[in-house]
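Please review this one:
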Amino acid sequence: MKFSIDHKSPVPLHIQAEELLRNLIKDPEYATKFLPNEVDMAKQLAISRTTLRQALNKLVYEGLLIRKKGIGTKVAEVSVSSKASNWLSFSQEMQARGIPIRNFELHISWVLPDEKLAHFFDIDTDKKVLKLERLRGKAEGPFVYFISYFHPRIGLTGDEDFKRPLYEILEKDHSVIADLSKEEISAKAADKFIASKLDVEVGSPLLFRKRYVFDQADRPIEYNLGYYLADSFVYTVESRREA
């Protein structure tokens, strides 16, 4: 099959590549086989592998594609998912509900990303990223432990006042607008570390949320993990049926 994109179009190349990939996903021809490899596809589209990978990464994290190292990329089996609308930072969510939030712990460090995180950010594993850990809750006690990693491109230094709403810091201090959030929610048993933070028994049920955050150019800016006490927090999803 011949692939092409319009290099004279005002639409960014990675957006065109993403749309092309979405059409391939719908094509029954690729329902049971791997997509063409990145090198050949990038060459045929006359774009860089980085541009193509940006489009591929987005669809991988939407769960539409599955990438197997050393083998290739294939279309994922159809699954059911929901989109939450009007998402906010945790501070903004709680403020909107009139719930005063207390920060019990705040830790900042620079760490080397593992392979999965480096893949999401599309950086090398020897490039350090800012890691922000926060234990948060109400006056009577904490109910969530957050771990966030940020793309080095943003320019966070670690000296920011992280008691402020996170996305306010990004927008006002670094001109980075969080525009798109993709989330995965599941049940998880508390390990020894999280159990000690939330003051529960090891193995206690938790609500576990992964959040992938992108800017207005669909570039990844944050990878966030949230561990919520199952009996202290309800996560509500509002979906609108499309005609």
In short: Residues 13-75 form a domain with the Arc Repressor Mutant, subunit A fold (CATH 1.10.10.10).
